[in-house]
């Protein structure tokens, strides 16, 4: 079976976890601090704060930029459901805009008309590792003084051409960027997340919120020669990363440049192999973006049936995934839980099938994600391409 993904974890990570376990200090401590420092250096961010997942990272990011109950946050429906859920955790309403069908990213031309006096943030996504059009998004955000949070769950190692220089996503080009270390991501700590920002006040807030709102962390009290009593000025959460995870993350970070190179090479090989399939839409990078290709998503020929193609590939021993989901089509998102541009009273498409989110829905229904992981051999990749040919019932065109 060729899996959809395979985390690049080995002896180095196992040894790092063992070292921490035997040290006797396993909760958020020195390894988390070291991982944060190394991550910040890698992306070029002034501050990095580790948390338990990208979902909790996004939740804290929205709280820090001031999202409150009754507010609106502009985002995409076409993303893993965590993107929309975090807005609702804050008691705010997601306002969905459609995507650009070529990049699967937020269409910046839709944002301006989604802005209202209740808009408190824009939550953009670097979908499946492809940087979104931050320059266009920030231009609108700055004009309306709206903070921008980047969902960079899949974009660890992605780059964007920024004022003439290639910069890592997470620098951050916007206000706050959030990353995931879930096993389906570019590097993994089992689960985990990271928040980067250039704003010292927000970074301090993340640190307070991730640990119950505790004024003096246990690590400081543990090593103090004088008795210190902590206090709890705000209601916080338990969103900590453990030192075991952070030690694994530090090893993963060392492998990251090679992982990104391998992923990019495999993606480029897919692009040329798949060019032989008539009617298949192969993803492309804008010339200002370098993707990690966390997922390699192809658009199926119009006449083909997504589920049948996926089943046929599964029967041939190849795992695939449907295109990225749309939150507005889930039962957890009844019409009163979200909005979209131009939504009016009694809007007929506010029932999970929205005319204004047409490209999002089409991407979910007519694309599939192919296996891509650094350990993938050329033979495995050739086999995936053959399985796709067979599933589509087409002969390669030379
Ligand atoms: C493109 C999207 O990819 C992911 O969504 P998804 O729809 O592919 O997620 P799922 O269908 O739940 O798939 C997660 C897959 O990730 C793999 N996986 C999950 N956990 C593990 C693991 O610990 N080890 C290994 N070897 N594989 C793991 C499994 O194959 C699992 O089926 C999420 O990571 C999203 O955040 C992302 N946007
Ligand atoms: O739980 C998942 O499948 C993805 C969520 C994620 O990547 C995260 O919260 O870090």
Automatic annotation (TrEMBL):
User: What domain of life is recorded for the organism?
Assistant: Bacteria
Q: Which Gene3D superfamilies match?
A: Aspartate Aminotransferase, domain 1, Type I PLP-dependent aspartate aminotransferase-like (Major domain)
**Reactions catalysed according to its record:** GDP-alpha-D-perosamine + 2-oxoglutarate = GDP-4-dehydro-alpha-D-rhamnose + L-glutamate
Co-factor(s)? pyridoxal 5'-phosphate
- Alphabetized PANTHER family for the sequence: DTDP-4-AMINO-4,6-DIDEOXYGALACTOSE TRANSAMINASE (PTHR30244:SF34), TRANSAMINASE (PTHR30244)
User: What species is this protein from?
Assistant: Methylobacter tundripaludum (strain ATCC BAA-1195 / DSM 17260 / SV96)
Cited InterPro entries: DegT/StrS_aminotransferase (IPR000653), PyrdxlP-dep_Trfase (IPR015424), PyrdxlP-dep_Trfase_major (IPR015421), PyrdxlP-dep_Trfase_small (IPR015422)
Picking any one GO molecular function of the record gives: pyridoxal phosphate binding
Assigned EC number? 2.6.1.102
Q: Which UniProt keywords apply?
A: Aminotransferase, Pyridoxal phosphate, Transferase
Q: In which pathway does it act?
A: Bacterial outer membrane biogenesis; LPS O-antigen biosynthesis
| Keyword flag Transferase | yes
The EC category is transferase
| Active-site residues (renumbered) | 185 (proton acceptor)
- According to UniProt, the name of this protein is GDP-perosamine synthase
N6-(pyridoxal phosphate)lysine-modified residues are where? Answer: 185
What CDD domains is this protein classified in?
A: AHBA_syn
Return the similarity comment.
Belongs to the DegT/DnrJ/EryC1 family.
- UniProt record, GO biological process: polysaccharide biosynthetic process
């Amino acid at each position: 079976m060729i899996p959809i993904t395979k985390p690049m974890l080995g002896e180095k990570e196992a040894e790092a976890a063992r070292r921490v376990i035997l040290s006797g200090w396993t909760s958020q401590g020195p390894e988390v601090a070291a991982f944060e420092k190394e991550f910040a250096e890698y992306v070029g961010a002034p501050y990095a704060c580790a948390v338990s997942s990208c979902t909790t990272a996004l939740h804290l990011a929205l709280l820090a930029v001031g999202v409150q109950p009754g507010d609106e946050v502009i985002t995409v429906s076409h993303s893993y459901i965590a993107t929309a859920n975090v807005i609702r955790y804050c008691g705010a309403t997601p306002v969905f805009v459609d995507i650009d069908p070529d990049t699967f990213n937020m269409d910046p031309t839709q944002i301006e008309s989604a802005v209202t006096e209740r808009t408190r943030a824009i939550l953009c996504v670097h979908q499946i590792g492809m940087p979104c059009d931050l320059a266009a998004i920030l231009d609108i955000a700055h004009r309306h003084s709206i903070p921008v949070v980047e969902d960079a769950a899949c974009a660890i190692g992605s780059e964007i051409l920024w004022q003439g220089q290639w910069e890592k996503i997470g620098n951050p080009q916007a206000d706050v960027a959030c990353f995931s270390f879930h096993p389906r991501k570019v590097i993994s700590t089992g689960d985990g997340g990271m928040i980067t920002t250039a704003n010292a006040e927000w970074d301090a807030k993340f640190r307070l919120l991730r640990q119950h709102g505790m004024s003096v962390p246990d690590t400081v009290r543990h090593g103090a020669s004088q008795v210190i009593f902590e206090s709890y000025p705000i209601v916080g959460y338990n969103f900590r990363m453990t030192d075991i995870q952070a030690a694994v993350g530090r090893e993963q970070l060392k492998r990251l440049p090679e992982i990104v190179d391998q992923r990019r090479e495999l993606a480029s090989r897919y692009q040329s192999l798949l060019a032989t399939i008539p009617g298949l839409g192969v993803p492309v990078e804008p010339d200002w973006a370098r993707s990690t290709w966390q997922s390699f998503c192809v658009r199926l020929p119009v006449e083909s049936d997504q589920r049948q193609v996926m089943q046929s590939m599964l029967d041939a021993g190849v795992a695939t995934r449907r295109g990225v989901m749309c939150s507005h089509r889930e039962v957890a998102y009844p019409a009163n839980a979200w909005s979209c541009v131009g939504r009016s009273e009694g809007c007929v498409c506010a029932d999970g099938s929205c005319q204004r989110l047409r490209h999002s829905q089409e991407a979910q229904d007519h694309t599939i994600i192919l296996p891509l992981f650094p350990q993938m051999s050329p033979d495995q990749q050739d086999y995936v391409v053959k399985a796709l040919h067979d599933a589509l019932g087409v002969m390669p065109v030379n």
